[in-house]
C-alpha cells in the first residue's frame, strides 16, 4: 500500500529521521514501535504531509502517487484516515460537527456518518451536541478514531489510539481494527507502546530507534531480544 | 363646489394647462421678469417673483419651479435668461424669451440666477396657494404647513374655504389647528377660544404648542388660562413620550451602523483570528465603489444602490482575497503579526485612495427613495435613510448567520481556525476556506461601506473612523459570536444615545468607553463568551 | 541659486483632506512667479514636506525647513494646534510663517503673518447678518470640541449677550472630532428651533464631522428656511464631498467665495484649473489666503530687496495687494490683514451665492474685544512698540518680546 | 465563579484586595491522618452531572489509584481539588484547616497540592531546565522572584530529577520540541520539583513503554509515605503494580464512587467488570 | 560586575549600550564642530535623535509586556502621554509671567478661557522634584489600578488589548475637552526653559539628548534584569501557559500587575523626555493609532528581544522622518510596504536577521 524509500527529515538543524525504508503491505496491520522520542510520530506526520521531508519518497500504491508531492488535504480523498497523537479534537465544534468535518470528501449521496461508529462508541451518540473540547480525555480519543473512520479510509493511520481509553473500550478498538483489517481489507498503520495490544492486532511490526529503522518483520518475529534492545530503557 | 376667492389664482390654474399654446415672442411680462431677475440686487429679484405671481402668466408655476431648482441662467454673451437643465459643457441652453437654443461652450459664461432664502420662501408661498387644491393630499398638507408659517387673514380665509370640503383627515386636522391658532390669537369669544384650546391640545404641532403657551401667558381669563395650561401639560407629556421613542430609534440606528461596520470583522477577526487593521479600509473601498457606480450611472441614482451593493461586495471581497493570498496566508499561526501586516496594508490602501480619488471627500448622493422621513406626527418622524440602514443591517446579519450555520464553509472555517493541521488532514481545503472566508468578511465590510456612504464622509479617512469602534463591538459581544456582535452593537448604540442628551456627545462617548472597560472586568470574554473546558485556557 | 520656499501642509493623515489643496496652490503660485521671472532675479524653489497631520512632526519639519533648507518663508499649517506647534520654532529660528486659515485669534507673533480671518472677520459679521437681515432671535452654537470653536463661541456668546439675547435663547453644543452620529443633536436643534422664535445654527464644526452633520440635517428635513445654519469651516471644497441638494440655502461666512464675479477671480480659477488639470476642482477661502499671503511676501521682498527675515518683516507691514473679490488686502501692524466679509448661501451645485457682504474690508483683530483677558491687549510690530501683546492698561509687553 | 461585586469590595473598608493579601495559607493540619476530604461534591455542566455526590478521603501518605470509565469524572474531580472548577455543592478540605473551595489555584498549589495533567502541559518556549527551575516551590512572590538565584543544593536537585526523567541530554532544549512521551516525563519531573504534599497524577503512563511504566510505578510508590499520591490510570497492569495487595483502589462511575477496595475486590466486582474492565481482563 | 552578568550573553545588548555610550560622547563633539564641517551634526538633528531615543525607550516598555508577558497592549501611548503631560505642566509653570497675557501663575490658555485660579492638580508642579515623582507615579498609578482590575478579573488576550485601547481612547477624548484644564486640543506648548536652562539653547538640546541616551541605557538594563531574572522566566511561562503557571502556585495577576506597572512607568519617563525635545504635548498622543504604531515598531524590530524593540523604534521613526521629507507624496506606500515585508519575510523582525543562530530568547 505504502512504500517509503530513503526518507530523511529534519527539525531545523536536528536530523530526526534517517534513511527510512519501509513497506506497509496492503490489507495488513503494521505496528510501528520504539521508545519515546525516536521519531514515530514524526514519521507518521511525514506520511500525512504535516512535516516537510528533506529527501526520499513515499509511494501510495494503487494510484502510484508520491505522497511527498501531494497536499495534505488530498489524503482523505486518497483514502487515508488519521488519528493523531494527542487527539487533536476541534475543541469548540460539537461532537457531531467534529464528525461531519470529513464528510465533503465522500461522494455526494454518501455523506452521512456511518452508524457503526456509534455502535463502536456509544458515548459519542450520547454527547452529539457537546463541544468536543468538553469531553473527557478518553471520550476525545474515541471521537478522534470515529472522526477518522467517517472518511471511509482504505488506509488507517493511528498514533497511540488507546491512550487514555478505558480497558473494555480498548478491547473493542482492538476488535474493530482487526475486523476492519481482516474482513474489509483495511490497511492499518499503528503506533503502539503496549505490547499485548500490538501483538493482538498487528500482523507485522517495525521498530524505530533514534530515527532509524532497526527491525521489521512478522509479529511472530518480535522476540525478547528485540524488545530488550529497542523497547526498554 | 370650491369657492375660489382669488380670481388670479383661478385663472392661473386654468391657464397653466394651456401653456404651450401661448406664443412667447413678445411677452412683456417675461421681458420684465427677465430684466428684474438679471439684476444683482436681491430686492429686484424678489420683485420679479411677485410680478410673475401677480401676472397670471401661464408659465408662472413652471418658471418659478425652474427658478427654485436653479435652472435659469444668464448668458454673458447676450445677458438674456436661459433655461439650462444641465450646466455642463456641450449641453443645450434654451433662451427664455423665444425658445432659441444654444450649446454651452464655456461653463463659466452661464451664471445661474441665484435665489436666496427669502425668495425661496416667497416662491414656495406662491406655490402653496395653488397647492391647497392639489390632487395629492401630501401636497395639500405641505401647502397648509407652508401657509401656516406666517399666516395672515387672507391665507386663513383660504384655508377656511378649503376646510369643509377637505376629505383627508390629516390635512383637515392641520387645517383645524391653523384655524384654531388664528382664533386663539384673534378672537375674544370665550366659546370659540375654548374650542380652539381643545383642538390645539390634541395637536403635536409645535406651532399649536407655541400659540397655547403664548395664550396662557397673555390671557386674563383665569379659567381659560387653566385650561390652556392643562392642554400644555398634556402636550408636553406626549412630546416627552415621543422623545423617548425617538431616542430609542436613534440608538437602534446608531447600533445598526456599528453592527454593520463590525460584522465583517466578526468573520475575519472573530472567526479566523486575523487582527485585521485594514478592515476599515475595506469598508472605505465599499463606499468608494458606491461613488464610482453613481458616477457611472448618474441618471439612475435611485437604482445605483442596488448595483452598488453587489459591486461593493465583489470589489472589497476581491481586495480581501488579494490581501489574504498576498500576505495573510503567510502569517497563520502568528495571529498577532497579522496586526502588523494589515496595519501596513491599511496605510497603503489609504494612500492609494488618496492617489486615485484625491484626498478630498467624494459625493455620494442619496437616492430619492431613501430621502425624507416617515412622519408619524409632528414631533416623531423617522428618517428613511436610517430606517433602510437598520433593515439592511438585519438583512446582512441574518444572511451571514445563514451562511455560517448552514453551509460547509461555516463549519470548515471554524475547524481551520481551531486546528489547521488537523482540518487539512480531514480533507478541508484550508487555503480555499481561508480565501473564501476572508473574502466573505471583506465583502461584507464593503457592503457596510455602501450603507455608510449614505450617512457619512466618503474619503480616505473613512476607514480609520470606524476601525476602533468595530473592534470594540466585536470584543464587547464576545469574539467569534455573530449574535454577540449584533447585541453589542445595539447595546452600545442605545447606551450612547441614552446618555448623550444628559452629557453631550463627548462625555457620552467617554462614558461608553469606561462602561466597556468595566463591563469586561465583569465578563472577561464579552457578552456571549465561548464557554467550556477548551475556552478556559 | 534659488530662493527656497517651505510648504508645510499635511499630505497624509486626517488633515490631508484640507491641506493637500493648499500645497498644490503654493506650487501653482510659485510656478507662476517663476514664469514671471522669479524674485530678485532668482528662481523660487518649493520645498514640500509632509508633517502627516502629526503635531510634533510639524515642529520638526519646520525646524528642518529653516535650519537645513534655509527657506526664506514657510507657507503652511492648518489647524491651530499645528500652528502652535510650529510657533516656537519659527520664533527661535526667526523664520516667517504664512498662516492661511481662519482661526480663533488671541495670538500675534512677529514671525507669523495671519492671512486667514480672525473672529471679527468672520464670526461677528455673520451673526450681525443673521440678527439684522434674517431676524434671528434664538441661537445654536454648535462646534467641534477644540480651541477654535470654543473661543469663537465664547466670543459670540459674549457678543450676543451684549446684544440683548437671553441666556435661554442660546444653546451651545460640542462634539468630538470626526463625530458621525448627529441624530440626537439635529433633533435637539429642531426642537430648540420650534419654540416660536426664529432660530439659526452657528456652526464651527470642523472637517470630517460636517458631512454627516449636513446629511442628517437633510435627512431630518431641517431646511434653511426654517433653521438656517451658518458655517465658518465649510467651504466649496467641503461641499464638493456632500450631496448639496438638501442643503440649499444654508449659509457660510468667508472672505472669499469661488462664485464671486471678478476678473481676478476668473483668472485665478482658470489658472487653478489649468494647473491641476481638472475643471471640476473648486477654489476656496484658504487658497485665496495663500494667494494673498504669497503676493504680500513677494511685494515685501521686492520692497526690501532681500529675503532676509528682519528686512521682510519690516517691509511687509503696510504692503497692499489685490485680493480675489475686488478689494485690497493690506497687512496691518498686528500681522493680520484687511478682508471683506461675505455671507453666501449654498446652491444646488455646491457653490455659494453671496447674499450679503460688508461695505468695506474689516481689519483683523488679533486680540478679541469681547474676552476678558484680551480686551486690553493690542499688537503692533512696528518700531518702537514691536510687541505682539501690549497691555494698554499695565503698559507692558509680555510673552514674545524683543529688546 | 462568582466574584463579589467590585463596588461592594471598594465600599468595604476592611476589604483586603487579593493583590495585597499575604499569600500564605493556614497551616496544614493532619491530626486525623486524613489529608484530603471530599464530601458530597456535585458539579454539573449545562445540566449534565459530571460529579454526583462524590465522597472520597485520602489518608496522609496514602497511594490511591482511581479508575473508572471515560467520562466518569476523574479529571473533573482533580479540577475541583486544584481550584479549576468550583463545585455546585459539597466540600473539599485539605487537612482539617484548609478549605480548598475558598482558595484559588495558586493558593491551593502553594498549600501543597501538585498536579500532572492528563494532556501534558509544559512551558513550551522555556528550556527543559527552566521548566524544572520554575517548578521549585521556594519563590512565589514577585519581588523575591526578581532576585532569586539558584543555590547549590537546588542545582543538584534539578540535575537529579533531570536524570530521573531521562532528559539530561535535553536540558537546554525548548520544551515545546519534546516528543509526547518526553513531555509526560517532564511534567512528572516538574511535579517532583514542586514537592507537594499531595500529588494528583492524571494518566502518567499514557504513551510510555512497559519498562518506563515500571519505573514510574516504582517512583510513585517510593513517593508515597512522605507524600499522598492520587493516580488515575486506565492501564490495568500499571494499576495492579501500584495497588499491590493492600492499597485501596477506587472506581468512579457517573460522577460517584462505584466501588472501593483492594485491587482483587475491585477486579472481581461484577459492576466494575461490566462498565469498565470488560470480560477478558 | 552585576551589570556585566546581565549583558554577558547578550550581544545585541552589548552593541546597543556601546552605541549609546559612543553617541553620548560623539554627538556633542560633532555638534560642536563648525557648521560647514562635513561631520557637523546640526542641533535640530540632535533633537530629532533625542526624540528617537525616547521613542525607543517607549518601545522597550511595550516589548517588556508584550514580548515577555504576552500582553498585547494597544494603549501604552496613554502612559507615555501622561508622563509627557506632567513634564509639559512643569514646563508651563516655568514660563511664569512670560506668557502672552503676562499672568504670573496661570498658563495662557487658562487666562483666555477665563480661569481665575490654578486647578488643584496643577499645584506643586513648579517644583521639578515633584514633577519628577509624578512622571513615574501618574502612569504607574493608572497602570496599577487598571491592571489590578483587569488582571484580577482575568481579562486576557484580545479582550485586554481592546480595553487598553478603550482606556487610551477615553483619555484622548477627555484631554480634548477644554474643561479638563490641559489646554484641550492645542495641548501644552511654547515652553521656555527646563531647570533654568533655555530649551532653545544648543547646550540644553545636547543635554536632553544625553539624558535620553542614559535613560534608554538604564531602561534597557532594567528591563534586561527583569527578563533575565526568574521573574522573567515566570513571565514567559505566563505568556505560554497562563493557567498552568497558576497550578504551579504563581499569582499570575500579581506578576502581570507589577511588570505592567513598571512598564507604564518607563513609558512615562520616555514621555517626559520626549516633550521638551519636540516642544508640544497634545491629546493626539493618546490616539489609539499611535499606540498601535508602537506595537508595530516592536514587531518590526523583533519581539521579545528588547534591543530589537529599540532597533525597530529607531528604524521606523528614522524612516518616517526621511520619507516625509524626501517622498512626501508616497511615503505611506513605502512605510506600509516595510510593515508588510518585514512581517512576511522576517518573522523575527530586523534583529532576526542578525541572530539567526540563537535558539531562544
Ligand atoms: N517541533 C519539533 N521541533 C524540534 N524537535 C522536535 C519537534 N517535535 C519532535 N521533535 C523531536 O524529534 C524527536 C522525535 O519526536 P517524535 O514526536 O516523532 O517521537 P515519538 O517517537 O513519537 O515519541 P513518543 O513515543 O514520545 O510519542 C524527539 O526527540 C523530539 O524531541
Ligand atoms: N465544561 C464541560 N462542559 C460539559 N461537559 C463537561 C465539561 N467538563 C467535563 N464534562 C463532562 O463531564 C464528564 C466527566 O469528564 P472527566 O474529564 O472528568 O472524565 P474522566 O473521568 O477524566 O474521563 P477520562 O478517563 O476519559 O479522562 C465527561 O462526560 C465530560 O464530557
Ligand atoms: N484654525 C482652525 N480652524 O483650527
Ligand atoms: Mg509520538
Ligand atoms: Mg480524564
TrEMBL record, chain A:
GO MF annotation list: ATP binding; ATP hydrolysis activity; branched-chain amino acid transmembrane transporter activity
Keywords: Amino-acid transport, ATP-binding, Nucleotide-binding, Transport
Entry-linked Pfam families: ABC_tran
Family to which this protein belongs: Belongs to the ABC transporter superfamily.
Domain of life (superkingdom): Bacteria
SMART domains xref list: AAA
Name this polypeptide is given: Urea ABC transporter, ATPase protein UrtE
Sequence ranges assigned to domain ABC transporter in this UniProt record: 2-233
NCBIfam families, per database record: urea_trans_UrtE (TIGR03410)
Automatic annotation (TrEMBL), chain B:
UniProt xrefs under InterPro entries: ABC_transp_permease, ABC_UrtB_bac, BCAA_transport_permease
Location(s), subcellular: Cell inner membrane
GO annotation terms (biological process): amino acid transport
Gene Ontology molecular function terms on file: transmembrane transporter activity
One GO CC term on file: plasma membrane
Keywords: Amino-acid transport, Cell membrane, Membrane, Signal, Transmembrane, Transmembrane helix, Transport
Topology of the protein relative to the lipid bilayer: Multi-pass membrane protein
Signal peptide interval: 1-23
TM spans (from-to): 248-271, 278-297, 303-323, 335-353, 379-404, 471-495, 501-520
Keyword Nucleotidyltransferase found: no
One Pfam family, short name: BPD_transp_2
Family designation: Belongs to the binding-protein-dependent transport system permease family. LivHM subfamily.
Protein name in the entry: Urea ABC transporter, permease protein UrtB
Automatic annotation (TrEMBL), chain D:
Classification via Pfam families: ABC_tran, BCA_ABC_TP_C
GO cellular component: plasma membrane
Name the record gives this protein: Urea ABC transporter, ATPase protein UrtD
Domain ABC transporter: 36-279
MF-aspect GO terms: ATP binding; ATP hydrolysis activity
SUPFAM superfamilies: P-loop containing nucleoside triphosphate hydrolases
Superkingdom of origin organism: Bacteria
Organism ancestry: Bacteria, Pseudomonadati, Pseudomonadota, Gammaproteobacteria, Oceanospirillales
Signal peptide extent: none
Keyword vocabulary terms for this entry: ATP-binding, Nucleotide-binding, Transport
Coiled coil (UniProt feature): none
PROSITE patterns: ABC_TRANSPORTER_2
Keyword Transport annotated: yes
TrEMBL record, chain E:
Entry annotated with the keyword GTP-binding: no
CDD domains in the cross-refs: TM_PBP1_LivM_like
Entry's localization field: Cell inner membrane
GO cellular component assignments: plasma membrane
Recorded superkingdom: Bacteria
Entry's Gene Ontology molecular function annotations: branched-chain amino acid transmembrane transporter activity
InterPro entries the UniProt entry points to: ABC_transp_permease, ABC_transptr_urea_perm_UrtC, LivM-like
TM regions (residue ranges): 12-33, 39-60, 67-91, 128-151, 158-176, 206-223, 255-274, 294-318, 330-354
Keyword Transmembrane helix tagged: yes
Main location group: membrane
Topology in the lipid bilayer: Multi-pass membrane protein
Keywords: Cell membrane, Membrane, Transmembrane, Transmembrane helix
Protein name: Urea ABC transporter, permease protein UrtC
